[in-house]
Each structure stands twice: as structure tokens, then as C-alpha cells.
């Protein structure tokens, strides 16, 4: 009896100890997708005391994410949820006097997203718009009396009687897009909404699109972006235009660069407009990077400010005195805040480190800045920036992530066989001995993107399966300069594969991974690169190719990249040798020995399912173990939480099967 009582006492004591210490740490799991909270779109209130932002949470019962508006005080001590409905609320924007917070939602049974006003003194939000088209962007006028709207023409494709969609009648050169589907001849135009009367006035009309609108500081003019070439479908050209803020006003074209000029921002005195110019002036501008530029608002010669840094810039914001422009710079595996002196073009980093900043935003008086901040161990959260420092003020993921083991993340540089230095990232499982681990090379898409020091849920989950996980910023990635980006132009699957193999050789040589247990995978261009790699090197014992393609010739006219193809490769009937060369994984499928899982989204017009289906069928034909998974109703980016979990679980099961 005494022994029994002693055992119970010991067990109770142990349980009490566990309860006192809190939950034990565990590894990250695929179904933690349901716990991950996405924070976005921070907006500083006019007086600078509060920041509004969006919070997106997964609803497991409805199998979708829902977005609400929250706000946090500048010091981070107070957090308030402002909306809480089953309908998403997005794009929070403060009225200039700070009395109202507007947002976009299709709540209350609306079929289109509408603008709602939330009085900061309290009460329910009020709908003030009754739009019939798809709202794309909006901005308050400086006096707070009007709202400038960029909206697509209404869709009248459904018949009133039966709600049956009319047949698609196609006559455009570029006729399909992911998520949008088949493209009709609707356009996006500018409108002004009177806040008090709720009256909507049309500012522009016609056969061109007007987007990215911005008010001048005095509220008399509007800057916007438009492509007025003969056939906008055949190029990526956009220019900056200015017009009076009134109906039928004649617009003035400020820029004439054959590439893209986007995101106009007025200087505080209204004399200049800062914008982003593409480095490329080709019809298809992907192989380039944005340069910060300014142009006189009355017309004149543009001045490029950031060519010396040779890195992409974004999110430009004017300083209050107009002498400086703040922007985010994408650099080697990080994104930092910089200050650009307009007169001298001097670029000075202000806030940088082993982390990334996104969505820079400033208060109306151009003195207070906020951004989203993330490092390898923290998902994006709101941070306020003061001088050369920042501090995190939102903590949406802290409660659950404090009990999760995360992989160690470190950068390394490998050398490819042609001598190219390649920046990479290694994820080492928590608690591992960091020695000869099975490895998954998870390749990023783009290709003009990069693996960086922001939190990476997918790679962390893969590492939690006791794999070393490797990110390779192969040539074509940004963050290493323009020449590095352009290195793969019209030459796919060559230097990228060389760089991936170089990273593998480096990690094998240093003893960090087991060269006999390597897998590879990725989504989009990561899936395409996976196909190229397994057709080149048989050392990879398992692969998971998502939203990829190999028989590039068959993609012409089937995906959304017609402008890229004809610019970069030429027409296939004029240059068949280029198209055949870039299709080598399909035509060398008999050389592939790697068991490969192919995945795709049913409604993907970016990289359609045919890319995965063809390679699956080919591997089936030659007898290599393979499987095909199609996610119903999804576009290029999978958004349904259960499918996100499913994809991660399939990755882990596939790699465990062949690498363990």
C-alpha cells in the first residue's frame, strides 16, 4: 500500500512539475499551418500613435483563411481587434484627420468588395461605396473628402435569366492569366468617391488601364500608371502619367522608358514624383530589377538614383524635407532599409541585419515609419522604426511558437564548377549532430526571387522531419546584382543546375549532408529546376516537382507567358532548336532514375497541370517510381489550408520513403 501511494505521489509530483513548466517543446508539424498567423499591410495613423494591420487566420472547419483588421499602439503595449466577421476585411487606410479607418470587404452579402468606414470613436462600420466592378486600389484625398479608386469594369458575362456564363470570346494576344482565367476586354479605370454623399464620379475611360493612383499633396492632381502602346498585351511597358483630379482631364505623360515605370509617390512639396523603373527595356522585363527614380511633376528628365547599388529597391517613401527617400533594398539573403539622398544619390543603409523588412509605410507627416519584420525564427510581424533601430510591436505567433523546436538556419557560400560564388541557406534540424544528414534541396521559384533570412515555414517543417534542408540562390535569383539575374536569360536548366550541384558538392565535402541520401523539390520554377536537375544528375534519390514543366514547346499558348516566350526564345516555328534544347528533361527522361512525386493545381494558368502530367506519364512509361497529385480548384499558389497541410505531408512521406 505504501509503495502504491508513493508511486501515485511521484506521478502527481511529475505532472505538477510539467504543468508548472508549461507545455513541452515539440517539432513543427504540417498541420501547424492552422496555427500560423499571417500579419500584413501595416498603416500608421496620422498622429503616429497607432498602427493598423491585417491578421489572417486559418479556419479549419471552413477550410479557408479569414482576414481581420487589428491595430497596435506605437509602443506595442496595447493591441485591439477592430473587425471580427466571417467575411474578410483588408486594405486598412486612415482618413487624413485620423477620425476614420477605412477598409475593403464584401461583408453583408455584397458580391463585390466595397469600402467601409469605421469611426474611431466606436460603433459599427458603415458601407460608403456601391461598386459594381472589382476594386484594385484606393487612396484618401488630402482633405479627407474624397477617395480615389482604381476599379476594373463590371463583368456582365452571366446572363440575367439563367446565370449561365456566356461563351468566352477571345481576341486578345495575351488571353489568359492565373486566377483571372481567360481574359476579356474589360479595363481598369479611375473613379472618385465623395465620402459624404457616396456619389461616384468617373475620371478615366477608354481602351487603356489606369492603375496605382496617387494624390498630389494639394489634392488637385493625380499620378497613375498606364500602358498606351499600340498593343499593351505584347509588352510590359508602363509609364507615369499626371492629370487634374477632374473628369475628362487631359493626362500628361511623364516617362517614356520602354520598360516599366510604376508606383508613383509625390514629394511633400508636390514638385517631384518618385517611382520605380525597371532595369530592362525589353518587352518582357522579368530579368531585371527596379531602380528608384524621380521626375519633375510638371514634366522633365527623369533621374535614376540607385543604379550604383545594383540591387532591387521597393516601397519608396519621401522624408518630410524632401531631401531623402527611404526604400527597401533586396540584398544577399536579406532586405534592409536604406536612405537615399536625392541631390547626391548617396545610399546609406539604416536598418539591416540577418532579417528581412517588407511593406514600409510612413505617417502623413513623413516622420514615422513602420514595416513588417521577419527573421529565420519569427514569422512576419509589425515593427516600428526609429532612426537606425526597430522594435517589434505585434506578437501574433508568439503564443504557440514558443513551444516549437525550430531548425538552426545559417548562410553559406558554395562555388560552382565555373567558379561562380552562390549564396545559399542551410536548415539543420533541432537537436541534430549536424553531421552527414539526409538532405532535401528545396529550390525557390521565380526564378527572379531569392531564399532569404525571413521565416520559412515549408523548409522548417521539412527540417523537423530530421532532414537538412538547403536553399540555393542559383543564377537568376535577385539579391546578387543584375548580371547574376540575367545569367540564365534564354538558357534555362544550365547554370541553375550547375549551382545546385555545386551547393551539394560543398555540403558533402564538409560532411554536413550524406551524398547518398539527397532529395530535391520545389514549386513553380523550383519544380522546373527540379526536373532539370534529375535529368542531369542521378545522385538525387527522390524528388518532388510542384507546378513545373519540362516539354517547354507544349507550353506555348497554353500558359500565361506568351510575351516572355516570344521575347526571350522567339517563336517556336522560327527557333525550334531553342525550344527543343530547353525541353531536355522530357527528351532525356530515359536517363532519369529518381523516384519523383509530381504535383499541380487544377486551375493553374501560370504553370498548368500539363507540365506535371507529361512528366508523370513519361516516368510511368519508362518504369521510374512516380505519383501525380492534383489539387482541385486551386490556382498557382495553393491557398486552401487542408491542401497546404496535405502537400507538406506528402513531401515528408515521399522523402522519408526514399531517403531513410
Structure description:
- There is one protein chain.
- The chain has 660 residues and is an alpha+beta fold.
- The chain has a domain at 405-548 and 595-659: Rossmann fold (3-Layer(aba) Sandwich).
- It has 11 helices and 40 strands.
- Strands 33-34-36-35-37-38-39-40 form an 8-stranded mixed beta sheet, with helices on both faces.
- The longest helix has 20 residues, at 2-21.
- It is globular and about 70 Å long.
- Residues 1-22 have low confidence and may be disordered.
- InterPro entries: 6-blade_b-propeller_TolB-like (IPR011042), AB_hydrolase_fold (IPR029058), Peptidase_S9_cat (IPR001375), WD40 (IPR011659).
- It holds the Pfam family PD40.
- This is Dipeptidyl aminopeptidase/acylaminoacyl peptidase.
Low-confidence stretches: 1-22
The total of beta strands comes to: 40
Helix content: 10-25%
Distance N to C terminus: 48 Å
Rounded to an integer, what's the Rg over CA atoms?
26 Å
Strands of the widest sheet, in order across it, are 33-34-36-35-37-38-39-40
Query: How many helices?
Result: 11
CATH architecture title of the domain at 405-548 and 595-659: 3-Layer(aba) Sandwich
Q: What is CATH's topology name of the domain at 405-548 and 595-659?
A: Rossmann fold
Largest sheet properties: 8 strands, mixed
Average of pLDDT? 93
Overall body shape: globular
What is the CATH C-level name of the domain at 405-548 and 595-659?
Alpha Beta
**What's the multimeric state?**
single chain
Structural class: alpha+beta
Domain Peptidase S9 prolyl oligopeptidase catalytic: 454-660
Protein name: Dipeptidyl aminopeptidase/acylaminoacyl peptidase
Keywords: Aminopeptidase, Hydrolase, Protease, Serine protease, Signal
Signal peptide: 1-20
Amino acid at each position: 500500500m505504501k509503495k502504491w501511494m508513493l508511486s501515485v505521489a511521484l506521478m502527481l509530483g511529475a505532472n505538477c512539475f510539467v504543468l508548472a513548466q508549461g507545455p513541452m517543446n515539440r517539432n513543427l508539424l504540417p498541420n501547424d499551418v492552422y496555427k500560423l498567423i499571417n500579419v500584413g499591410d501595416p498603416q500608421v495613423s496620422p498622429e503616429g500613435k497607432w498602427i493598423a494591420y491585417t491578421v489572417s487566420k486559418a479556419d479549419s472547419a471552413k477550410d479557408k483563411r479569414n482576414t481581420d483588421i487589428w491595430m497596435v499602439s506605437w509602443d506595442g503595449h496595447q493591441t485591439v481587434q477592430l473587425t471580427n466577421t466571417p467575411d474578410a476585411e483588408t486594405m486598412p487606410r486612415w482618413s487624413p484627420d485620423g477620425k476614420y479607418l477605412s477598409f475593403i470587404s464584401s461583408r453583408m452579402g455584397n458580391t463585390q468588395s466595397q469600402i467601409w468606414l469605421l469611426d474611431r470613436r466606436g460603433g459599427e462600420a458603415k458601407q460608403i461605396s456601391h461598386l459594381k466592378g472589382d476594386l484594385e486600389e484606393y487612396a484618401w484625398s488630402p482633405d479627407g473628402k474624397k477617395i480615389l479608386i482604381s476599379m476594373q469594369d463590371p463583368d456582365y458575362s452571366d446572363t440575367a435569366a439563367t446565370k449561365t456564363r456566356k461563351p468566352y470570346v477571345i481576341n486578345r494576344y495575351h488571353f489568359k492569366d492565373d486566377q483571372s482565367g481567360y481574359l476579356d476586354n474589360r479595363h481598369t479605370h479611375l473613379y472618385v468617391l465623395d465620402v459624404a454623399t457616396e456619389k461616384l464620379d468617373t475620371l478615366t475611360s477608354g481602351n487603356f488601364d489606369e492603375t496605382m493612383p496617387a494624390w498630389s499633396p494639394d489634392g488637385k492632381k493625380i499620378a497613375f500608371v498606364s500602358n498606351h502602346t499600340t498593343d499593351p498585351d505584347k509588352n510590359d511597358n508602363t509609364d507615369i502619367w499626371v492629370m487634374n483630379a477632374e473628369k475628362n482631364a487631359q493626362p500628361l505623360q511623364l516617362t517614356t522608358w520602354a520598360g516599366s515605370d510604376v508606383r508613383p509617390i509625390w514629394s511633400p512639396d508636390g514638385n517631384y514624383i518618385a517611382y520605380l523603373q525597371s532595369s530592362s527595356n525589353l518587352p518582357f522585363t522579368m530579368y531585371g530589377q527596379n531602380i528608384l527614380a524621380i521626375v519633375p511633376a510638371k514634366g522633365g528628365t527623369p533621374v535614376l538614383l540607385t543604379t550604383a547599388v545594383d540591387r532591387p529597391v521597393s516601397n519608396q517613401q519621401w522624408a518630410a524635407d524632401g531631401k531623402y527617400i527611404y526604400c527597401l533594398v533586396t540584398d544577399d539573403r536579406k532586405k534592409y532599409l536604406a536612405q537615399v539622398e536625392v541631390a547626391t544619390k548617396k545610399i546609406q543603409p539604416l536598418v539591416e541585419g540577418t532579417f528581412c523588412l517588407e511593406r514600409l509605410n510612413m505617417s502623413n507627416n513623413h516622420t514615422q515609419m513602420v514595416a513588417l519584420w521577419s527573421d529565420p525564427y519569427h514569422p512576419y510581424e509589425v515593427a516600428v522604426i526609429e532612426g537606425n533601430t526597430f522594435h517589434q510591436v505585434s506578437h501574433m505567433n508568439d503564443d504557440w511558437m514558443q513551444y516549437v523546436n525550430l531548425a538552426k538556419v545559417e548562410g553559406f557560400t558554395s562555388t560552382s564548377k565555373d567558379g561562380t560564388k552562390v549564396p545559399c541557406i542551410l536548415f539543420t534540424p533541432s537537436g541534430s549532430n549536424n553531421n552527414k544528414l539526409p538532405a532535401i534541396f528545396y529550390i525557390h521559384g521565380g526564378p527572379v526571387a531569392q531564399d532569404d533570412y525571413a521565416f520559412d515555414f515549408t523548409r522548417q517543417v521539412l527540417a523537423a522531419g530530421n532532414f537538412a534542408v538547403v536553399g540555393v540562390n542559383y543564377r537568376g535569383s535577385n539579391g546578387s546584382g543584375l548580371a547574376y539575374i540575367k545569367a540564365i536569360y534564354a538558357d534555362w536548366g544550365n547554370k541553375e543546375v550547375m549551382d545546385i550541384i555545386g551547393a551539394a558538392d560543398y555540403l558533402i565535402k564538409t560532411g554536413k549532408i550524406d551524398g547518398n541520401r539527397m532529395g530535391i523539390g520545389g514549386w513553380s520554377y523550383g519544380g522546373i529546376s527540379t526536373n532539370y536537375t534529375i535529368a542531369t544528375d542521378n545522385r538525387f534519390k527522390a524528388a518532388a516537382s510542384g507546378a513545373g514543366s519540362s516539354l517547354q514547346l507544349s507550353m506555348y499558348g497554353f500558359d500565361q507567358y506568351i510575351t516572355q516566350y516570344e521575347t526571350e526564345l522567339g517563336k517556336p516555328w522560327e527557333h525550334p532548336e531553342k525550344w527543343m534544347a530547353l525541353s531536355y528533361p522530357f527528351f532525356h527522361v530515359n536517363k532519369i532514375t529518381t523516384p519523383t512525386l509530381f504535383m499541380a493545381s487544377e486551375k493553374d494558368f501560370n504553370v498548368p497541370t500539363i507540365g506535371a502530367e507529361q512528366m508523370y506519364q513519361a516516368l510511368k512509361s519508362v518504369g521510374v517510381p512516380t505519383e501525380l497529385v492534383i489539387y482541385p480548384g486551386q490556382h498557382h499558389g495553393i491557398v486552401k489550408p487542408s491542401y497546404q497541410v496535405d502537400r507538406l505531408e506528402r513531401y515528408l512521406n515521399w522523402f522519408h520513403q526514399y531517403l531513410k
